[in-house]
Structures are given as C-alpha cells and as structure tokens.
Amino acid sequence: MPKRFNDTGLCIPYRHYMVDTSAKLKQIIQLTERGEYFTINRPRQFGKTTTLFLLAKQLNQLDDYVALRISFEEIV
Predict the structure, then answer these.
(1) Number of independent structural domains in the chain
(2) Residues 37-75: pLDDT tens digits?
(3) Domain of 10?
C-alpha cells in the first residue's frame, strides 16, 4: 500500500507521510524519566494525537512504564 497524506487524526508512519518526531519523543521520555511534566499545546493538525500514540508505544517497550489511553470526551 503506498503512503498517503492524512489530515484526519492519527498518522501511522508506514502508512502516512509525516515529519520525523524522534527527537521530540526522546526529549519527552527524558522529562518523564526525571519525573517532570510536559504539555502538548498546539492547534489542529500539528501531530498531538500522533505524538501521544508514538510516545505510548515507546514507553510500553520500556520495562518501567505502562502507558494507558484514557478519554474524557463522553463525560457529561
């Protein structure tokens, strides 16, 4: 399947064209390992969902972390 542009949510690296975010993810993991906080505050289409997806994937590969996905969208 050829790669394509995706502008409707999660980008999957082998399926979609996307910017290399490995340096950004490395910085976030370093913050996490030091017990520090980070925020993701960007407008639409800047890769927030994809960054969190890839971060969870990398953290789950480490022995010390279990990343869980939680959504509060349906809470009224």
Answers:
(1) 1
(2) 999 999 988 888 889 999 999 999 998 999 998 889 899
(3) 1-76
